[in-house]
Design a protein that fits this description.
108 residues; alpha+beta; two-stranded parallel sheet; 13% strand
C-alpha cells in the first residue's frame, strides 16, 4: 500500500481541481510523499496476510475473474476482508467489484 501511494504520488499524481475548478494534477516530491506516509502510518492499522492466506487467495483468483495486475487490488481486498472492513476507500471502485464481499468501495 505504501509503495503504491509513493509510486502514484511521485509519478503521475492525482487528478484534482484547483480553486477555480480547473483540472490540475497533484504530484508530490519524494520527500513530501515519504513525510505524508510517515504521518498517515500512525493513523492506520496494518493487516498482514500470512503466506497460506495469500496462496489461498491466488487459488481463488480464477473463480473471481482475477488475473494480471488486478491481483494487487485483490490482495488489498483480501486484507480488508481479514480486517473486517465495511468500507474500502479507492479511486478505482470498479477494480474491487466482486472482491470485497458486503463491503462498499467508496471514492475518497
Amino acid at each position: 500500500m505504501f509503495f503504491e501511494f509513493f509510486s502514484t504520488m511521485t509519478g503521475r499524481g492525482l487528478e484534482v481541481q484547483d480553486a477555480d475548478g480547473n483540472p490540475s494534477r497533484l504530484v508530490f516530491s519524494q520527500a513530501d510523499a515519504a513525510q505524508w506516509l510517515r504521518e498517515f502510518a500512525s493513523k492506520v492499522t496494518i493487516v498482514e496476510l500470512e503466506v497460506p492466506e495469500i496462496l489461498d487467495a491466488m487459488a481463488k483468483a480464477r473463480e473471481l475473474g482475477v488475473q494480471g495486475a488486478r491481483i494487487y487490488d485483490f490482495g488489498h481486498a483480501v486484507a480488508a476482508m481479514k480486517a473486517g472492513a465495511s468500507v474500502v476507500l479507492t479511486r478505482n471502485e470498479k477494480h474491487f467489484a466482486g472482491l470485497i464481499g458486503n463491503a462498499q468501495a467508496v471514492w475518497p
